[in-house]
UniProtKB/TrEMBL annotation:
This is Core domain-containing protein. Coiled coil: none annotated. Residues 1-110 form the Core domain. InterPro entries: ATAP_core_dom, HesB-like_dom_sf. Pfam families: Fe-S_biosyn.
Amino acid sequence: MELTITDPAMDYIKKRLPNAKYYLLATDDGSNQYSKGGGSCTVGDTFQVVGVNKLAAPYDIKMENNQDVPFYTSKNDESFFDKGMKIDFKNNWLQLKNDGELMDGQMTTNDATKGVEDNGMDGVIGC
């Protein structure tokens, strides 16, 4: 999976996640250990860039990118991606796009460099 990250987006990510050794492109719908949002109404609709110091399963799919930074995703998250994946920075927000659509116009960052807190979802997701 290839990912384009614009210079303004990468600058913002590095500013928000200064201690990260790796970056994850993950959903923010309650379906993973990094998600704080959630509910079935947000599945595949909200995304986040997570900064981590250690890779953990299931985030083992490397995303080649033009910034040559260590970006990873999971098989589950990858199922939402299409050709032309791009992270941009517009109107003070990260945006996730592909060749066909704007996937998330207000993508967040999540600093998990000091570990992951329980998101409280326990696999049961509602809106």
